[in-house]
Specification:
Layout lengths: L7 E4 L6 H11 L4 E3 L14 H14 L3 E4 L11 H21 L3 E4 L9 H21 L6 E5 L12 H12 L4 E6 H7 L6 H14 L5 E5 L2 E2 L10 E2 L7 H9 L8 E4 L10 H9 L3
Parallel strand pairs: 1-2, 1-10, 2-3, 3-4, 4-5, 5-6, 6-7, 7-10
Antiparallel strand pairs: 8-9
Helix pairs in contact: 3-4, 4-5
Length: 287
């Protein structure tokens, strides 16, 4: 699939295996796939064989569809509990290695929480994490997929809640690993970025470009928000049915500085996740 327009895709369930995932992706008409290669609620690692990985890699290549992994929900790379910190690192090592084997762009990751200690207090822990990951891949001669940092809605002590934290996170990890950014429109809106006001959003993008670089932005989770501006709550709504609204999201999709970005929907659809109606709506906004 070749297009001068940005690609539109979705998070697709891998339930039933990778063959079923590709069938679902074809039915939805996605141009980008995001998936959890393992159950996202635990640290259990994949048991896929090399043959299975190879077949999926070839199938994706023949479809010309970029693939992203999304890390498990339990990860906290700043966790002061050594056991849980090591578990988080182990899960991420596995995902980044799998991403390299699959030919995926990388793994989109919620970095975690400072648990009330403040960002400055966990910077060295995060730097240690980056060094530990890099050492693992170097020791085992592994070429990982990109480590992709996702912004947060700003609730609690979550890391990546504003552009200053995103800047610091990016530079902590980029020293050691291939690192990119994924922005979630719902999270931006909930954390106080005026996605619903084009002029203010344009100003924020300019600041992002200056501090991090738009060339380092690989994907946008295109989601509306069920909750109000600056709510600090992560509640996704279908496109045009939430507080951001169709006009604001359409401006994002059509933005001339974002033509290189892959758009990935994580909306509820009719209750089973992104559906063809939402995907077609996002595609129609590209024109």
């Amino acid at each position: 699939m070749t297009t001068s327009l940005p690609r539109v895709g979705a998070h697709v369930s891998a339930s039933g295996g990778l063959g079923k995932l590709l069938q679902r992706a074809d039915a939805l008409g996605v141009e980008v796939i995001q998936l959890h290669p393992t159950a996202p609620q635990n640290y259990r690692q994949s048991t896929m064989t090399g043959d299975e990985i190879g077949r999926f890699h070839l199938a994706v290549k023949s479809h010309d569809v970029p693939v992203y992994f999304h890390s498990i929900y339990l990860i906290n790379l700043a966790n002061p509990d050594d056991k849980l910190w090591h578990a988080s690192i182990g899960s991420l090592e596995h995902y980044l290695e799998l991403a390299g084997q699959f030919g995926a762009v990388g793994t989109i990751t919620h970095v975690g929480s400072h648990k009330g200690a403040g960002f400055a207090a966990v910077k060295e822990r995060l730097s240690h994490t980056a060094r530990k990951l890099a050492a693992h891949f170097k020791e085992h001669k592994i070429k990982p997929g990109a480590f992709i940092i996702e912004n947060t809605a700003g609730g609690g002590g979550t890391l990546g809640r504003d552009i200053t934290e995103l800047h610091d996170l990016y530079h902590i990890f980029a020293v050691e690993l291939p690192t990119k950014i994924c922005l979630d429109t719902c999270h931006l809106f909930a954390s106080g970025v005026a996605v619903h006001e084009p002029k203010k959003f344009d100003e924020w993008l300019t600041e992002f470009d200056r501090k991090i670089g738009l060339k380092n932005l690989t994907a946008i989770h295109l989601n509306d928000s069920k909750t109000s501006f600056e709510s600090n709550r992560d509640r996704h709504a279908n496109l045009g049915e939430g507080e951001i609204g169709a006009a604001g999201l359409k401006h994002v999709v059509q933005h001339p500085k974002l033509k290189h970005v892959n758009f990935i929907l994580e909306v509820p659809g009719s209750g089973q996740g992104p559906d063809k109606e939402n995907i077609d709506r996002a595609k129609s906004w590209r024109k």
